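Data availability excerpt. The first of two example chains:
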Amino acid sequence: MEKLLTNDIVKQKYANYEFFKENGVENYPADFKKDAMIEDVLKKYDSLGDEDKSEEQLWLAGRLVSKRGHGKTMFGHIEDFSGKIQFYIRKDEVGEDVFKFFKKFDIGDFIGVKGFFFRTKTKELTIRVQEFKLVSKSIQPMPEKFHGLKDVELRYRRRYVDLIANPEVKNTFITRSKIISLIREFMTKKDFLEVETPMMHPIAGGAAARPFVTHHNTLDMDLYLRIAPELYLKRLIVGGFEKVFEINRNFRNEGISIKHNPEFTMMEVYQAYADYKDMMELTEDIFNHVAKELTGSLEYEYQGEKISFKKPFARMTIVESIEKHAGIKIGEEMDAEDIFEIAKGKGIDDADRKMSRGELINLIFEERVEEKLIQPTFIYKYPAEISPLSKNSPEDPRYVDRFEIFVYGREMGNAFSELNDPFDQQERFMNQINKRDGGDEEAHRMDEDYILALQYGMPNAGGLGIGIDRMVMLFTDSPSIRDVILFPTLRKTSE
């Protein structure tokens, strides 16, 4: 306990805790119920006149955020999830012995107050307290009233305090919930069936990434937290479902940045008898729907940039985007050696002679183009070497029918015309195994059961994945992914 009593404020609050305990007051009662949310009361009595008072008395509850005494009276405010209301209590109405208990309440305590409603001389709707109860004693001090909680690392680590100190943070997560609800509503109206697939996989697959490994004791086998649900969702297309989606967590054992968290939320969508062009239209419609319902407009400002979600979004092949935004023309006749020399000449240090033609094209794109794609833009016709789950383009087998959508220089989603040829898929998995043998820990793994599933027949299909966290960043004007994840992954502290 001594470690908790770190300063005078904490010591005083603990003394009040002891006072209540010694006087038979439960510091953490289990039986309190309130009658209404504060916001509902404020709306209900909005028209209450200056000389009027409500006939009904209600129990309200919330955190004590301010109080001030004037001898035999006391004013203050309590705040719940919906809003804040002023209270007023008089010693002559509740009695001197009872009043002294109220005075022992500290800022930060959760309290319940019961009374009728009236307007003060300043016109503020107020509850005139007739009864009260301690709901939960606060021991730690609240963040400073005017300075709040400013240490960014501490805000992420102690999100519970961040939510108290910074109301806009609460609004961010309310908006996040609305965005997910809007997407779910939209997909359901489009006749997509929401499903759930395993979070623990016997084989780490569905995307190129390093997995987290765990172990099942009873079965004595290693399992992998899922990198992506793709291969399970496509098994459902094999099984006869035609339109499915899942909104859930993925886990990738990778670095942390303003765009990346090891645990993140994705929506993946699969539709039979469709292709990547259908997924383009669906993606436009999803962003349109969320923008209109959330903001009432198809134009939105993010980090000072005006973003327009008017259809159609810009469309460029990856090669066209490199020529437009990097000034590098990649001729179709160029081989890997030609492109390597161009990359090195342009100062792209990560270029390696061992890279394939497609890997070099993708590297140039990531290094010199991505950050320039501010308006919603579809980049399509990706190199086959980096897209082992996509159908080849019928016009040129060196590329696949795949796109990624970018907004504000960030990839927001990825889509394919799904590969459904089991023999081609098996060959591509074998190529990925060779990459792993060469040291690429992020290469895809062989999933023999998925190959078997394809042998039962899967119709042509379009697949789409959208990063929910990045979409929330966009529509809450948040600069970092950690701002939109309630409890982001952080380094251990030395405390």
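And the second chain:
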Amino acid sequence: MPALTFTTASALRSHYQDVILPIWRGVGFNKALGLAYESVAADGMTPLPPVRYRAMACARQLFVFSLAQEWQHAATLFASLRHYFADRQHGGWFYSVDADGAPKERQKDLYTHAFVIFACAEYAKHPNAVQAQQALALMEETSVLIEQRMVDGALFSSAMEEDFSRRITGPTQNPLMHLSEAWLAADATTSDGIFAHRLDKLASAFASTFIDGASGCVAELPLGSENNWVEPGHQFEWLFLVESSQHPAFERAGMNRALYRAFDFVRRSGVDTATGGVAATLDLSGALLDTTQRIWAQSEYLRALAHHGEATVRAELPTQIARFGARFLTAPGWVESQTADGKIVRAELPSTTAYHLATAYATLP
């Protein structure tokens, strides 16, 4: 398949509007259940048989269509989120439901709860006041639940039993990053000081637990954990969150300075100089562990370049846009992941990827 040509962020946004969004309001949407299928085939036309539907995936779709201000579709997703995934007995959100909409994986997952908050912060911009207030209430209710029932030392557990009686997994980087993202969005939507306070506490505890002093990188597990690793895409994602928000919580935690060092560290070790492809994982010394290139990490690289404090780095953005488009976008959709030499690793198109593209493209100049 010939590579597509992109030279501007506007061209990326056009591909998103003309190709990607229509998948998820059309063939990628199960109208009978009111949920997006987890994936469609690489042709962008064939839903893959569902085994489950995840609450996180529903929340990401809710965010995507709220950001696009397609309020009717967003309202359907908001109703489905509450109908299928809310645990009315124990509180919080089930991880997934089965193909018929019955609870399947019932554990309580911080990543999922963070995305519910994030999606509600965007859906709260709904022009209908009742819908907006419902979203705001759900956003705060979920935040309080995390604080009261998922607390783990100064941070939060990544996963807990259905009734919150026992920790399954302790604090890990990625759910906490997305909780930070969610509380940033909630703070921007409400201007409620409670979210700034939450971010202050979270950033301070996070920095001391996860940021490696030698490289500035954010590790995936708490420092000192066996077989720890670094994901270049997450360094770019964190740099964007810190730089774009300019939230004082991150400055007070010393994250700004660390993340610029992390940016340089992973660019040297984890970005292919010929293609701009971002490797999946490194060890803490910078050695490559997994050279697979996933589209979400490429999109995070774009917005990290766009928001970098140095003009010479920002000037690299047009070149990387062209590389990204040629390597990862297709006429019917995109390439989810590939090897460094261009062999497809994952051919299908997951419903969750639209969130990565939407958030990246929305912030590019």
